[in-house]
Structures are given as C-alpha cells and as structure tokens.
Design a protein that fits this description.
By secondary structure, this protein is of the alpha+beta class. The chain contains 3 helices and 4 strands; from the N terminus they run αβββαβα. Helix 1 runs parallel beside helix 3.
C-alpha cells in the first residue's frame, strides 16, 4: 500500500518564514501515513506542523493521525505570515 507524500505549494514559503524567524525545521512529509509535514523546534519546544493551502483540507490519514496522536496538538499553518506569527507567539 502506498501513501500520499504531497507537498503543498506554500510549504517552501512557510519553511523559509519559520527558519527566518529562528525556528529549526525538519521535513517529515515523506513519512506519509498522515504524519504532519514538519517537525519544528522553537525555544526548546517541539511542534508537529501540517502545512496546508488556505482552503486545503486534511486527508483521512491526517485526521486519523491527529485523532490517535497523544503528544501536543498538530499545528496547521496556511501561510508564511501565519508561520511568522506562530514563532512570535512561541518565543
């Protein structure tokens, strides 16, 4: 069985905004099976981030992952501006 490993068009801009704001970003999108796109480190904290286009919807696999995940909630980021605001709120 294969799983989607798509990257939303805005992911490059979101990653750049996160990094430019001081976050460490590790790509997870190739894991598939609903795993969020990014592992983000900010101020000694770790976050799972799902990048979506503004009108993008979660896949069934993503919904299942988030329902079963027992760590911190998965953060959805839709734009570079949201990425910058996210980092500012975490610092």
């Amino acid at each position: 069985m294969t799983f989607a490993k798509r990257v939303d068009q805005n992911q490059k801009d979101v990653v750049k905004a996160l990094r430019d704001s001081g976050a460490y970003v590790f790509h997870l999108h190739e894991v598939g099976q609903g795993c969020p796109d990014l592992l983000v480190g900010i101020n000694n904290q770790t976050y799972l981030v799902e990048v979506k286009m503004p009108k993008g919807k979660f896949t069934d696999a993503q919904i299942k992952f988030m329902a079963e995940w027992t760590g911190s909630p998965v953060i959805r980021i839709n734009s570079a501006e949201e990425a910058i605001a996210f980092v500012k709120n975490m610092v």
